[in-house]
User: Fold these one by one.
Assistant:
Number 1:
Amino acid sequence: MNMKTMVTLVGFIGLLMGKLAAEEAKPPVRFAMVGLTHDHALGLLSKLNGRTDVQLAGIVETNDVLIVRYVRRFHLATNLFYPTLADLLAHTNASAVAIFTSSFDHARVVADCASQGIGVVMMEKPLAASLAEARAIAATAKNSGMQIMVNYETTWYPGNQAAYTMVHDEHQIGAVWRMVFHHGHRGPQEIGCSHEFLAWLTDPVLNGGGALNDFGCYGADLAIWLMDGQRPTSVLATTQHLKPEVYPKVEDDATIVVTYPHTQVIIQASWNWPFDRKDMELYGKTGYVLVPQPNVIKVRTGKMETETQITPPSPTGTQVDPLALLAGVVRKETLPTGPSSLVENMVVVQILDAAHESANTGKRVDF
């Protein structure tokens, strides 16, 4: 190695070490959780161990049973809990909020966050239980300048992110003409969801529906992402009560056909799958990309004799998980885009709303 190359290499290493040191020097983003009735709160709390980019400032919850359960499971200090967001903010310096209430309560909590000066709010999918509440959230965000994020587990799948690059950016399978999504499990009661979660998840008002809202939103969100946020031309849906003795108030099975001018999207959302599944199939003019598991892609293009299985690369930066994106948005390093964005999730709720109308009337809903 000559002297010039060595100097260049040393300089590069110095820049890299300086960048890493700067990243480590950033104070953690302190955020609050509002509500624990959504069992996905378990997943978020499990991601906090060993992190330096975010820190939990406190939790707004008044249900003593839930508080005791979470304190024991995650060894939380009891002084982390507050009865209201105003009380929490009076004692902490949280700069963002993650919502884990019923879908129906999202609009109310967002309005409360705006009144308290919170600039970044993340909620579990879907954005809202109905189109009216989604519009209320959008209005609050516009009037306050708030950034809204919607968290879907599928957003962070390495397979989905890699498939998007292959299909949307690199056009490896040509124009996409069909997307098929399968999302769901054996049923929220069957898999052991908490009593508090079941109480609103199986309520037609608090959840906006049953399996259609719970799992139909995943496919709608991914499809809109792949379609650059476009609204479809029509929605046709059918729902069933295959287990009325278990879920008497809401549908437990739904099939939604979302039509674009040159693409058809089929969303199969169910609480009746024999196994948990969140997979997608993308078919184009010259090939297909399948994502049967979060870390597996199966591809066949016009240049391939047979199907090839690929292990996608791990996501980096703000695309690692919801907390990484939350920190990036608070620090103004990025914005909620794609499947996490308010704009695309407004279309998701429009599709869910149209799907309910179609299922109730037996007619296609044209946009």
Note: The chain has a mean pLDDT of 94.
Number 2:
Amino acid sequence: MYDYLLNLTQIETIFLIIGFIGQGLFASRFIVQWIYSEKKGISSIPIAFWYLSIFGGIGLLTYAIFRKDPVIILGQTFGIFIYLRNLILIYRKKNEKN
């Protein structure tokens, strides 16, 4: 692994960092959801979960495009639309209450 990292070009290193940041954001959404649910005492999903999903997904999608990985590209593209749709539904409901 050490040799792999030493042999990366500058652009490969940048995209690797983007990929790791995306993965970190994407994974952190479960921690945020868990803490939020514990505080409420019920299983619940905070709005931050959807934003972390979107930004994490965009980071992973960027990395996947650079790596030309069709499996991750398709999965993240589809997921990002679902996360966006959830935010639209949440904000639509909030606006209806006002």
Note: Residues 8 and 78 are 30 Å apart (CA to CA).
